[in-house]
Amino acid sequence: MNHSQSKALFSRAQETIPGGVNSPVRAFRGVGGEPVFFKEGAGAWLTDVDNNRYVDLVGSWGPLILGHAWPPVVAAITEAARLGSSFGAPTEAEVRFAELICATVPSVEKVRLVSSGTEATVAAIRLARGFTGRDYILKFEGCFHGAGDPFLVKAGSGVETLGLPDSPGVPAAVAGLTLTAPYNDLGAVEKLFAERGKDIACAIIEPVVGNMGVLIPEEGYLQGLQALCRAHGVLFVLDEVMTGFRLARGGAQEVYGLRPDLSTFGKVIGGGLPLAAYGGRRDVMSKVAPEGPVYQSGTLSGNPVAVAAGLASLQALRSPGVYERLDSIGRELEAGLRAEAEEARVPVTINRVGSMFTVFFTEGPVFDYASAKKSDTARYGRFFHQMLEEGVYLPPSQFESAFLSLSINEPEVAHILRAARRAFRALGTA
Ligand code: PMP
């Protein structure tokens, strides 16, 4: 494959943009080499600036559950833009959007719209602190909740990919208020809560983790965590930025039968535009300004173009059988990838929940931060580049989830598995 235009753009970009990218994992540091610059997406397929084509398994890191440029979403965006791109004042569409979220996710009684997942998680923990009067928060090792200061402690995603355990610029006094525990270890939380429970405002968790690669909650883990939170007056905050409207219409909380005090959403709810949300218990959400004293605001919050894209996407996800279809495509790919790896004698662990999956290059099992880090990231990098050459765009880091879309059909599955056969064989002989 020729990447000359991408290379030229990347070298130009580095002159004016830090690292040449507007978000770190895009730079391919996790896999080596240089990023591909894209110019077009249509359904399951991406076209780069050198006219190479790829089946997209990133989907803009989760939002594009329908695929690229889904016609009803494009139409909704066009129509909304024609009517004015922003008012900084209320619109009917945002009321409909809030009603739709509250009707779909029973734990969400009131919801506030924001423009990014980071804004949603930062606001949620501020609210938890304001509501409980407690300063500490608990997060889980390797989970990522966006780039807010309190979360850049033992974080996953790009922080893990770049090996930046503690970011300069986050004051020790702020980082010191973030307590951590290993994922999938209830005993650790029990012990921590026994000692510090009354100081902790909330526990925030990715129910199914995407940001160390995919980790699956052990049976009873999330329910147990919710119960421990209740027992200690710690708010249970489910970060559904990745999982919301992706694993089921009602998100991971529907799948695992949870009722969090607060939830955060992003990605899928915006249909590829900047839109996110936090919401939950009525008494807690009533503390948000102007109804209550906990401040949070945004110039473009509830932006009409973003809300139109979100409404059109969520509408499409109401069609019967969409989540079953995503799961069956996922199951077929998982089985196919496992068979190809076995055939080539490459040891892998594949973790998958519905349309989120990761191929870890380790015998596994992979169930927490420590076990995820045993994966051979250099091998992942070689696999990634081989797949890229074969026309499949995987996440450019071992510590990220791949995402399936409803635009992936049998021809794309066959294309991915053909590519994987060659890629695993190349690794097997390397
Ligand atoms: N929470 C989770 C679980 C995420 O995966 C992400 C982003 N990948 C965020 C929060 C932050 O969202 P954003 O990038 O929109 O700020």
Automatic annotation (TrEMBL):
Keyword Transferase: yes
InterPro entries: 4pyrrol_synth_GluAld_NH2Trfase, Aminotrans_3, Aminotrans_3_PPA_site, PyrdxlP-dep_Trfase, PyrdxlP-dep_Trfase_major, PyrdxlP-dep_Trfase_small
One Pfam family here: Aminotran_3
Keywords per UniProt: Aminotransferase, Cytoplasm, Isomerase, Porphyrin biosynthesis, Pyridoxal phosphate, Transferase
Molecular function as annotated in GO: glutamate-1-semialdehyde 2,1-aminomutase activity; pyridoxal phosphate binding; transaminase activity
Cofactor: pyridoxal 5'-phosphate
Catalytic activity, reaction form: (S)-4-amino-5-oxopentanoate = 5-aminolevulinate
Positions carrying N6-(pyridoxal phosphate)lysine: K267
CDD domains recorded: OAT_like
EC number of this enzyme: 5.4.3.8
PROSITE patterns per the UniProt record, alphabetical: AA_TRANSFER_CLASS_3
Listed pathway(s): Porphyrin-containing compound metabolism; protoporphyrin-IX biosynthesis; 5-aminolevulinate from L-glutamyl-tRNA(Glu): step 2/2
Domain of life (superkingdom): Bacteria
GO biological process: protoporphyrinogen IX biosynthetic process
UniProt family annotation: Belongs to the class-III pyridoxal-phosphate-dependent aminotransferase family. HemL subfamily.
UniProt-recorded name of the protein: Glutamate-1-semialdehyde 2,1-aminomutase
